[in-house]
What does this fold into?
Amino acid sequence: MKALLPTLLVLALLLVTASEARAAKCWSRQDQGSTLQVFHVYSPCSPLRPPHAAASWEESVLQMQAEDKVRLQYLSSLAVAGKSVVPIASGRQIVQSPTYIVRAKIGTPPQAFLLALDTSNDAAWIPCDGCLGCSSTVFSPLKSTSYKPLPCSAAQCKQVPNPTCDGSACGFNLTYGGSSIAADLTQDTLTLATDPVPAYTFGCIKKATGTSVPPQGLLGLGRGPLSLLSQTQSLYQSTFSYCLPSFKALNFSGSLRLGPIGQPKRIKYTPLLKNPRRSSLYYVILRGIKVGRRTVDIPPSALAFNPTTGAGTVIDSGTVFTRLVAPAYTAVRDEFRRRMGKAALSSLGGFDTCYSVPIVVPTLTFMFEGMNVTLPQDNFLIHSSAGSLTCLAMAAAPENVNSVLNVIANMQQQNHRVLFDLPNSRLGVARETCS
Ligand SMILES: *[C@@H]1O[C@H](CO)[C@@H](O)[C@H](O)[C@H]1NC(C)=O
Ligand SMILES: *[C@@H]1O[C@H](CO)[C@@H](O)[C@H](O)[C@H]1NC(C)=O
Ligand SMILES: *[C@@H]1O[C@H](CO)[C@@H](O)[C@H](O)[C@H]1NC(C)=O
It folds into this structure.
């Protein structure tokens, strides 16, 4: 393995260079109206593709799973009111950031960025000129005629976490995954597809530590005060949907559709719940889970919504593999194992239910309030690169976090249209092949 590493690194670098050339081609299609192309960050179309992604599919999957742990810790720290969970860095250096990116422009004339989509965050932030610890793609406020820093007296300055006041300029500090950032609170024109949003409030990052910060910034699609939805209420009416491409088809893009126009009519809905203490998270009611046609036995307390403890189920775009609290995961997993009978069980990284023979469970159904979503195998089985091992692509919530939160993650959402309809407090899901 040690001898292989240099070779892999060289290979990774070559692939990165080739991918940069390819990336230009992928993004050449213009984003139309209020619909944006969405790429997986590991896609050959993504210039942000981390070098390790090139090593092997198996490595990438295990890497994504390791990153998920940091994400889960982070989400739990958002969800568990009054408790701040300190993110725990894993043994090795990891590059953790949400999984899907879109193209956006900021300023006049516009400067282009690939922003990570994050439905569990509100504010947008972008690395700015002079930033310590940021990547090389930064926003230059001096080159924009519409840029404006916000004063401490601005109303928005009360909506950021840990506001700071430096002279008269408003700023904020926050932790994100395993990183911390310090930013100025600023405004400029944000252009999404062909829609300009004047005076968009975002964080201009001046300092970043750790490796969780998406290299070119983040677009918060949460539901709290500074999110895209809150800042574009008249334009998009707090409505958006996405279809995330499968990471088995990395060349393909999905889409992010903003606003009520063009959203699917034939779609099933479940109510969206609000947790006033954690306003950015999208909570839903998960009533049960079926493995094939059998409803597994999950104690109701494992699925119950509790705004005080933060317990319940959230839909998240940034976690890769669904995590269930231990009693729920164990029930699902045990049913898989029961179905597999005497077939030899093995594990791969953090996946504990893997087989070298085909898994006989054809579907998995999430039973949400008012909506059953039946997933095909592509949404819950992961195959190792050699094709020799197939694993149930879910896990129990990490043990070192306050495990009360079930997270429906992006692998389980791929090739589905997921519609966030806030005016009607509901979440829609329909199958759609977008890759
Ligand atoms: C915010 O972060 C900056 C840069 O790391 C630091 O100098 C400052 O003390 C922090 N402020 C607060 C209030 O934590
Ligand atoms: C992705 O695109 C590249 C070139 O653009 C091509 O070589 C490769 O075969 C494609 N992969 C898939 C899975 O379609
Ligand atoms: C979901 O499936 C369960 C079990 O099969 C069934 O009882 C329930 O009525 C279904 N719910 C909806 C909304 O179709």
Remarks:
- Residues 4-26 form the longest helix (23 residues).
- The chain is about 15% helix and 35% strand.
- Residues 1-17, 81-96 have pLDDT under 50 and may be disordered.
